[in-house]
Amino acid sequence: MQIGLLGYGTVGKAFHALSKEQPALTVKTLLTRRPRGTGCRETDSFADIVNDPNIDLVVELIGGIHPAYEYISAALRAKKHVVTANKALICAYYPELVQLAQENGVCLRCTAAAGGGIPWLSSLSRVARMDRITAVEGILNGTTNYILSEMTARNAAYGELLAEAQKLGYAEADPTDDVEGYDARRKLVLSANLAFSALLREQDIPCIGISRMTVADIAWARERGLVWKLIARAERRGDAVSAFVCPTLFPASTPESQTNGSANLVSLYAERIGKQSFSGAGAGGWPTASNVLADCLEIADSSRSFYSDRPAAPLPIDNHGEVKTWLFRSYGRYAVRQETAADAFEAYAAVSEIDSGALLAHLPWGML
Amino acid sequence: MQIGLLGYGTVGKAFHALSKEQPALTVKTLLTRRPRGTGCRETDSFADIVNDPNIDLVVELIGGIHPAYEYISAALRAKKHVVTANKALICAYYPELVQLAQENGVCLRCTAAAGGGIPWLSSLSRVARMDRITAVEGILNGTTNYILSEMTARNAAYGELLAEAQKLGYAEADPTDDVEGYDARRKLVLSANLAFSALLREQDIPCIGISRMTVADIAWARERGLVWKLIARAERRGDAVSAFVCPTLFPASTPESQTNGSANLVSLYAERIGKQSFSGAGAGGWPTASNVLADCLEIADSSRSFYSDRPAAPLPIDNHGEVKTWLFRSYGRYAVRQETAADAFEAYAAVSEIDSGALLAHLPWGML
Fold first, then answer.
1. 3-class DSSP state for residue A3?
2. Is CATH 3.30.230.10 the classification given to domain A2-113?
3. What is A120-281's CATH number?
4. Known catalytic residue: A187?
């Protein structure tokens, strides 16, 4: 399958590298303003891609609404499949683009637009085909989660951490979309649309971000064993949807509270299969590009005979003594944290030496 | 796509019900020893299925090694696709069955064989195609997790809870496969084989179950803020694999510790995309059947144009006042748990009345 790639930023570059390992995919032409030395044909004219009858699939990674919308529309009309990571665009033109893909009998996918590298939208659509999804909910914005995590961990002020996140590249120069919850809301729209076969519009969904949270708010929660997380949530209610983005309190021991930094955690609730949760890196070049690639592979796939058609090898099992020491390490590691200093030292010394005999005496039950 | 269904137990029945909602799938013939009144053709002879040129796909849900192996082999040789939930069989004849599928140019899938309704094997194979997976690890057996969870929660003895699990249908009359870790080990073999393109054999993998755990072991862990979980783990190490099944200690606040009852939680670690975790119901008719159905749909799919081709509706947003009360409820709910009785009463009263004015005064920051 021959690909026209639009854009060569962090995700575009990672996608290009990943695609080289896939026999089924070739990036034939790259749309770029300046030479990139990729080895494939490079052009600054989209016409070179849309008019090329040998290009089957357009991967859009330039971001922004225009000209991405015009490019994607033209590609679909030219009966080329389209894969994009552009949540703002898909969200803004959801009904138009889905219809255009259907009318032209080609595929449109945007799994990387929500959840970074997590197979969230693809899993969601898989469940939606065979069960009634009642709600979707989760931590879908890495920037706000990073800021909230650090506010919680370090007792630092919002403004200070935002500046730091900007310096580290976790937040944009204009952070409005992230910190006011608009980015999470777009991902919620895509999730809810797939979950409920709906056509929600961003502007209809109430959205409360984190820009007004203070050190005192964080401290108030901490005193009560609670943690603030920015949650995007949509629930089917008859012929309507309850949907919003809002900071929410979780007990410190819940999976949500322990989702730190730029990680995402997102769950679906379905009538027959119950709750399923997915977590992983919600942003970054490799994770995002991996979902773009997965979409391309899904489109390119004629049925593989097994999950993978790669040859498999009878790898030997070699535990390097690990099974015998796994229990010991498990015990020792937490003993170090939990016991008195004397106990900890003893346990730690034993673990470090991997002295089975000595540690065996410490084990809670005599399995080995 | 016409299906020959083998078996009509809990999963078979659920699968049959789910398949009726799928226009692309029809169960044409059911293999069953006694009449089931399903409306499709019912037979007690597999020949009626394997010799029927109109059946494209055989779904094997009878379990056990024989005659399931002979049936599946014959179906693949007759160039019919095969979907199964039979981990014991796939594990025992992995290389033979994968090769048979490849030689005959048909599909073999077994996503329901590990993780019940969680899209684990399918997600794993998806990541394995584009990244180097370094480890797979998780809670993959619901029976042992139920027993360990209840031992932890109720301070009850292993034997007592095993008997209870048997009564509730969570454990077999002969519980050996579950409690000695063999079931988890089979799921580990399938996971590791897909993750590492390997051909591991169950009998090579060390396996420690939970049958010798005592109330004292659980108490010992609890005193230290720890929880026992039966973990199956495989890690790629050069040209070998470190793999085992073993009870493991986790701090009480980790996602593993909070995976209770018959739930599963399983993670992959990959070089470029990092860690991804998946959780949900690890067993049960509907969840397991949903993964069987997903495999069938994947095989039946010619590319859909969007994730779903179902028509979408512009559902209205109706939050039933929930956004305004979400923060209040969030606050109130945990206040009830965390505060003194007097505080709790006050907060609870305010929440129950959904008296915005009164609660607003309690809120940590004045957002609304």
1. strand
2. no
3. 3.30.360.10
4. yes
Is A139 strand, coil or helix? strand
Cα separation, A56 vs B292, in Å, equals 31
To probe the interface with B, which of A124, A260, A273, A299 has the most B CB atoms within 10 Å?
Answer: A273
More confident site: A25 or A368: A25
Of B28, B79, B87, B187, catalytic:
B187
Q: Do the beta carbons of residue A55 and residue A43 sit within 8 Å? A: no
Residue of chain B minimizing CA distance to A323 = B244
| Rounded Cα distance, B90 and B97, in Å | 7
pLDDT at A274: 95
Is B22 in Cβ contact with A315 (below 8 Å)?
no
Task: Please give the Cα distance from A226 to B320 (Å, whole number).
Answer: 26
Per DSSP, the residues of B130-146 read TS-EEEEEEE--HHHHH
Instruction: Label each residue of A301-358 as H, E or C.
Output: CCCCCCCCCCCCECCCECCCCHHHHHHHHHHHHHHHHHCCHHHHHHHHHHHHHCCHHH
User: In this structure, what is the dihedral angle of CA atoms B161, B234, A326, B260, given to the nearest 10 degrees?
Assistant: -30
> Per the CB < 8 Å rule, is A130 touching B281?
no
Q: Annotated catalytic residue: which of A80, A87, A187, A229?
A: A187
Task: Tell me the three state secondary structure of residue A218.
Answer: helix
Which pLDDT value is given to residue B276? 97
Q: Which of B240, B262, B112, B127 is nearest to B187 (CA)?
A: B112
Q: Do residues B243 and B187 lie in contact, with contact meaning Cβ atoms separated by under 8 Å?
A: no
State the complex-level ipTM.
0.83
**Per-domain residue ranges for chain A?**
2-113, 120-281, 322-360
pLDDT tens, position by position, A8-58: 999 999 999 999 999 999 999 999 999 999 999 999 999 999 999 999 999
